[in-house]
Amino acid sequence: MAGSESDVVTRLEEAILSLIRWVAVSDVFGPDSCQWISGQFSFRKARTVARWVVMMKQIIMLIQMKTHATIRELFYSSIRTYSTQVVTNRILAKVTQFLGVPRETLHVFSPSKTLVRGPFLLTEISYSADVEVDCNNVFETRGHQLSSFGVSRITCYAKPNFILVVEKETAFQHLLAANFIHCLYPCVIMTARGFPDLASRKLIHLMNCHLNGRTRLFCLCDYDPHGLAIAMTFAFGGEQNKQKYYTEDCAIPQMEPLLLPEPKEAVSKGIIREEDTKSMTPLDLHLLQTLHNRLKHLEQQFPSQLHASWRKSLESMLHNRVKYELDAFSDLPEVVGSIISVTVSLP
User: Where is the signal peptide (predicted)?
Assistant: First the structure.
C-alpha cells in the first residue's frame, strides 16, 4: 500500500479500537479518544458506533484489497446496518471529515453521469487494471460515459480550441448530432446531465491543468438563475458540499458562462419565440440575489481571475427578469457555434 493509504488504515483501526473500548469498558469517552462521539452510552449512540465501525471496516478492506466501490455498493453490502442510502452518505461524509481526506482516497466513488466527447485519451481507474479510452471513438458517437472510479491521466492528441460544458444532455446530444465537434475541431464538449457531480468537476480540473490553463472553458446553461447556479457549481463547487464531504479544491476560476443573447434580442433575431420566454418567479429572483452575493465573495476570493462574463450574465438576468431554456433555440448548434467562434476568434 502507498504510504498515505497505510496511514489511513492505521487511523481507521485506531478509531475502531477506541470505539470498542468505549462500548466495552467505559460509559464516557476519554479525552484521548475520538471527539465525534461523547457522553453517556445510549441505544442511539450504539447504533451510530455500529455504523461507523461497519463503514471503517469496509474502507479498510477496500484499501487492503486494492479494490473500489460506489457509495451505493457500500449501502447494499450492509443494508440492515445503514437502513437508508442517506444514512450511508452521511456516515461516509463524516469519515472523510474525520480523516481529512477525499472519499477517492478511501477507494469510494459516486456513480458518474458524465458524458464527454473530444480528441483525447483518458486513463480510467477500474476494478482490475486501469483502462485507456479514446473519447473520440467512432463507436461512442453519443459520448463516452466517464468511469465512476475516476481518471488517473489524460492525454490530448489535438489541442482543443475550447472546452464546452453543457448543462443538459438534450442540448449535448443536439450538438453532437449536428457534427458540432468536427465543425469547430478540435474541441471538447461534455455534460454532467444536470447538476454537476464530483467526477465531472475533477475531469474539467484535470483537463485544465493538463492544458496549463491556456484553453478557454465555457459553460452552456439555460438563461435563468438555476442555469447560472449550475455554471457556478461547475467552476467553484457547491457551498453545501464543502461542509459535507472533505474534498480537494477543484475550483477553476478561468471558467466562464457562455453569454447568450438577451431575451428581446433572441426573439427579434428569431432565435427563440416570444412564447418561449417566461417571467422569473419570486424563487428565481431570490436565487438570483443569492448568486449575486456569492459572486461578490468569489470576486474577493479570486481577484483579477474571474471572467467579466459572470457579472454580465448576472446583471443581464437582474435587468430583464425573464428566462428561457436552451431547448427553445431554433438552431442551437448554429447559435452556440457563432458565439464561440466570435469569442475565441476562430476562423
Answer: none
- Domains of the chain, CATH where assigned: 3-107 (1.10.10.10), 160-342 (3.40.1360.10)
Known catalytic residues are 76
Close Cβ partners of 195 (under 8 Å, ≥ 6 residues apart): 230, 233
Q: In whole angstroms, what is the distance from residue 219 CA to residue 257 CA? A: 5
Phi-psi group of 125: left, alpha or beta (phi > 0 → left; psi -120 to 50 → alpha; rest → beta):
beta
Phi and psi, residue 267, nearest 5°: -70, -45
Euclidean distance between the first and final Cα of the chain, in Å? Answer: 51
DSSP per-residue letters across 62-112:
HHHHT--EEHHHHHHHTHHHH-SHHHHHHHHHHHHHHHTS-GGGGTEEPPP
Could you give the CA distance from residue 294 to residue 231 in angstroms, rounded to a whole number?
Answer: 13
Q: In this predicted model, what pLDDT tens digit does every residue of 74-96 receive, in sequence order?
A: 999 999 999 999 899 889 988 88
Cβ pair 108, 59 in contact under 8 A: yes
Q: C-alpha dihedral over 194, 199, 204, 209, to 10 degrees?
A: 170
pLDDT digits (tens, 9 = 90+) for 209-218: 888 888 999 9
